[in-house]
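wait is this the right file?? whatever heres the structure
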């Protein structure tokens, strides 16, 4: 597969990916595509709000306590009535279902992905 979006190593090092723990998750009723509104604890990097279209594989209550990988240095983005502060990462399946990227074992919130 040819990729025309080749990054330099310097480009990649600008992406700040951290592990955080989901501390709240609820149905995001104000959006047009099914999503959850969540807060993720990144330790020393703070608690950040986000939304995620992960409703096909996850229920809000099972997300609480799950450690996820997120990009934390994007500019804030308005999503409906909420300002998103990070992007939780996941794998996109054939039916557009998202499987969250998680830590293999518990680590400190804010751990850098390298």
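ok assuming it is, sequence goes like this
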């Amino acid at each position: 597969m040819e990729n025309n979006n080749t990054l330099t190593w310097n480009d990649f090092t600008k992406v700040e990916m951290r592990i955080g723990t989901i501390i709240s998750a609820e149905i995001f009723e104000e959006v047009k595509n099914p999503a959850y509104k969540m807060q993720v604890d990144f330790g020393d990097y703070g608690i950040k709000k986000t939304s995620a279209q992960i409703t096909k594989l996850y229920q809000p209550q099972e997300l609480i306590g799950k450690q996820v990988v997120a990009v934390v240095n994007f500019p804030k983005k308005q999503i409906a009535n909420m300002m998103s502060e990070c992007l939780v990462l996941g794998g996109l399946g054939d039916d557009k279902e998202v499987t969250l990227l998680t830590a293999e074992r518990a680590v400190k919130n804010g751990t850098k992905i390298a």
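The two ends are 25 Å apart (CA to CA). so i think its the right one actually
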